[in-house]
Specification:
78% helix; globular; 303 residues; 0% strand
């Protein structure tokens, strides 16, 4: 039941903290797993595990849903995750990909304007500009200038999840059905991509260590089922825009964990650019929240 308080309760803030921990930890466990697994195979194993876990609960969707569902599965399940894991595997630190991924939020606003004709306020436009300027600042970090491919891959990955977010609008499916069908539909194309690009997957599977399999389990069980499950609980009670600002803790926490646990070396330009990206995302989210709230009555309405 939607909340009428306009703010999160202490219990709900606790759920947000769990979501951020689950998603931040996913960057660490996935980075370690990608030492043994190539990125497309890692994505395929994640989707396979989700399909096995949720397959028994799936119901055949009506025909009208399939075009939108196929788009969501392709954009979110296959292309976004495949490219983001590829970026993470190549990246020299956790901070850059974790922060740049958040640029999908301003991308959604731009795509909604371009594809759906939605208008946005100048404040939203300013926030979008700040966010993308932050990506440019981050990109001038010496380590990234020397190897720009990971940043480029994550930007493309963010574009695909933004397209998937647009496609999800109007998709009337609960979390189990949406995640289950996204995994089941995406499984075949990502396996084909893995075989064609990365070669025989059996060799990688046979030689994978314990930390690699922990990464697969974490990505499917903790990041997807727990993290997205709790997120689904919260958005049934509050507008998405109310939750988004709190979730910006996740990439910051991931960056800190990368420094503490993996010994990442993060330059000052990454922190400055990252702060600009996240402040821009925050600006878009706050503006969306303002639009989601009912307008106060004007004087004429009170007469």
């Amino acid at each position: 039941m939607p909340s009428e308080s306009g703010r999160l309760s202490g219990r709900e803030l606790g759920l947000v903290a769990l979501i951020c921990l689950a998603w931040a930890g996913n960057f660490i466990t996935s980075k370690l797993a990608l030492e043994d697994f190539p990125p497309f195979l890692f994505t395929a194993l994640r989707l396979l595990l989700l399909t096995l876990l949720l397959g028994a609960f799936l119901k055949l969707p009506p025909r009208t849903v399939w075009p939108r569902l196929l788009a969501v599965a392709l954009f979110n399940g296959v292309l976004h995750f495949a490219l983001s894991f590829w970026s993470l595997k190549l990246s020299h630190n956790i901070a850059s990909p974790a922060i740049v991924m958040q640029s999908y939020v301003p991308m959604v606003a731009l795509l909604a304007w371009w594809l759906l004709g939605e208008k946005f306020h100048w404040r939203t436009g300013t926030a979008i500009a700040v966010s993308f300027l932050g990506v440019l600042v981050l990109g001038f970090d010496p380590a990234i200038l020397a190897d720009p491919l990971p940043l480029g891959l994550m930007l493309i990955s963010a574009l695909f999840i933004a397209l998937g977010t647009i496609a999800m609008r109007g998709l009337q499916m609960d979390l189990i059905q949406q995640q289950g069908w996204t995994a089941a539909i995406g499984l075949i194309p990502i396996w084909l991509m893995s075989v064609l690009v990365e070669g025989n997957p059996l060799a990688h599977i046979q030689n994978a260590g314990t930390q690699a399999w922990i990464g697969v389990l974490y990505a499917a069980l903790i990041a997807s089922l727990v993290g997205h499950g709790l997120f689904f609980v919260l958005i049934k009670r509050h507008p998405v825009a109310m939750i988004t600002p709190y979730l910006l803790t996740a990439p910051l926490l991931a960056a800190i964990l990368g420094v503490v646990l993996l010994g990442d070396q993060v330059g000052i330009r990454v922190w400055i650019g990252g702060a600009m990206v996240l402040s821009g995302v925050l600006g878009v989210a706050m503006r969306n929240l303002q639009k989601a709230k009912p307008e106060p009555p004007v004087a004429a309405d009170l007469v």
